[in-house]
Amino acid sequence: MTANGRLRGRSLEPVAGNGLIDRRALIGRGIAFAGAMTGVGVTGAAAEPLTDAPWSREMGAVTPALQTPSRFEKHVVRTLSNPDNEFRNSHARTPHHLLNGTVTPNSLHFSINHSGLPDIDPDRHRLAIHGLVKQPMVYTVEALSRYPMVSRMAFLECGGNSAPMFSNEPLQASAQALHGLVSCAEWTGVKLSTLLEETGVDPAAKWFIAEGADSHALSRSVPLKKGFDDAMIALYQNGERLMPGNGYPMRLLLPGYEGNMNVKFLRRIKLVDAPAMSMYEARTYSQILPDGKAYRFYFLQEVKSFITHPSFGHSLKGPGFYEISGIAYSGAGRIAKVMVSADGGKSYAEAALQAPVLPKAFTRFRMPWRWDGQPVVLQSRAWDEGGNVQPTRAEFVALRGETKAPPPLLGFPNQHYNSLTSWAIDANGGVKHVYA
Amino acid sequence: MTANGRLRGRSLEPVAGNGLIDRRALIGRGIAFAGAMTGVGVTGAAAEPLTDAPWSREMGAVTPALQTPSRFEKHVVRTLSNPDNEFRNSHARTPHHLLNGTVTPNSLHFSINHSGLPDIDPDRHRLAIHGLVKQPMVYTVEALSRYPMVSRMAFLECGGNSAPMFSNEPLQASAQALHGLVSCAEWTGVKLSTLLEETGVDPAAKWFIAEGADSHALSRSVPLKKGFDDAMIALYQNGERLMPGNGYPMRLLLPGYEGNMNVKFLRRIKLVDAPAMSMYEARTYSQILPDGKAYRFYFLQEVKSFITHPSFGHSLKGPGFYEISGIAYSGAGRIAKVMVSADGGKSYAEAALQAPVLPKAFTRFRMPWRWDGQPVVLQSRAWDEGGNVQPTRAEFVALRGETKAPPPLLGFPNQHYNSLTSWAIDANGGVKHVYA
In chain A, what residues touch B47 (CB-CB under 8 Å)? Predict the structure, then answer.
């Protein structure tokens, strides 16, 4: 802080209730944060001489071929629903409350496996494209590696992500437990359209069925139009070959569509004239609505956001400045706007969006905030470039219903939750999950 | 291929020597690759029934808390210059010839350590900002985590990257061995300007000295102007906390500047009126030129590109279509253009640049190519938005000199090589490093 400790600059004036500060305070030069940080850094006229810690006095460890996080970060892991690999599906959730930025490192990308992690030999794996095509084709990994490729950032989200939010009482759980089935990476591979141009398409084809090579043989029906849009046969994830839990050696990537449709270990694409009505489309992802009707083919992961800092599992160390930040994304395109409230939705201020804002990818939003030490309720709400808005909880529950707590984590109709998440900060800096 | 195997679409016509195809063949729909791929995929009228491999018939392995690459990718590692951790520096190089896209996964980000990997306890680590400031400050990791943050993609490159290219004879080595001391990640942290606004700056301050907490206590002088521009105290790398080899728990990030200046394990920033002339600026990175003069303060990593696919270590499996791709970057800003030649520089065609093209970050370029099976020489040449162009080898050697092969990997004056890399493909598909 400066010696006088006073605020400088108009933009540090609050712009919404409970201390939200204009996002322009984050942008460009000439906006001084000096004075906002009281109690954060420590003034140190006696900063010299610095003391030497043990690691400043001795040779360190060997530089390894594959580097891994510090031992002081061993709590930063995916949480597992099936650590003993019993004969059912396994979820591994991304620890959003411990991450920042927009890229999910490969080690922490979420993963759901229905019959364990297959150990696929890439030299023996094949992808067949057949059915209503003019010329069926079979591709090896090596063959696909010669085709024209594209790279793009894309989020992947399980349709069941945030299912605990269907509970009629707020579960006390972290952003990882509530929202850990979404991640974002740079994917590189061959556009499906490139391969379909090669096989040719029978005019009768309207859908394709994608099937995985693991023993679950997961299959999903996808509109052929998506196949000619931005569908990709992904071979690389953040630069390296796919992780086994993310579909090694190849997966279908359908940016913005429900994770389960992005078939991993992809071995077959069959062009057909009608959807197969496989288990996941006929049962799991056909959400039953309060009036007894059901959604059919609810593919899109709709506009959504949640605050990761601060969030459940954190505690604030006294009043003063904090940055509120979180993740926003939409399967329909780019995020256009994120509004943040510190008073449970009574007033909102617009958050800064970290550039570049890419379509169907994570956008990090940031909001400067001065906490006065009183209880507050933080929440975020996102809009996408299509004009879609994240629904309030009241709107969402009216349309989609809720269940008695605690809900099954992945039972229907608990799919495609995209309403707000609210974190209540108490006077001691503790964080609770609330509905507001 | 289509049944008739003919090329469709004007844009598959060659646009430069030895089979380079117009980059627009990669963009958008309606451009058919059918027919271009002869001999790549395998036509398969009998694609059904698919045979089941072992992994399609049994339960797979447990889903782990931290996922790691498939055992079939165990060759994808950093190569080490000092695997026994002898008392000298250690280099770990990124395997660019095995990667794609633009993000370097954290496990494979290059690293140079001068006294091994320090085991720093983040709760005990401190960053002091002192010297010609109005109010010295000391920051803990936890304190910095409350400040406004930014995220950005940025490449980091050792000033000695590509030093083997100073050899007067082309060394037969992979892109990893030649150029593996550059990587690219999304970095998240606090802008240094935010902290300097807090400490205040004495008008006499013109430089700052950054010092690391490892036992090497590496220190470098940086113009204060850079500190107020895009310098960052980075805390996160691709979403998670920094890798130990990349500066955990915090490093200085100076986008576009020589890697050595991006001080890791950062513990001190001292504002001063003149540079310290530490070892790295007075000796190592003051390149001696052929005329006996030397560069002083050669901070910028200049515009550069190299082809990663195909490259040394690969072999082409017969004539037909291939995608040529590689990496381009410039410390001065965005890549504007990459030209690719398949005839050793006699003719060039413009490569497609993968969007988004971000400043001071990797840009992946892609060039469609039909190889006729005859010997060719591939090379790439990049331009940045400032109009800077990657020099030809003749231009570069005239200005900077060369040494008798083999050169020391990191001795001066072998720094800041940014000329072209040429790969010769022989009639058997073998790849050699040549000067052209």
Answer: 128-130, 136-138
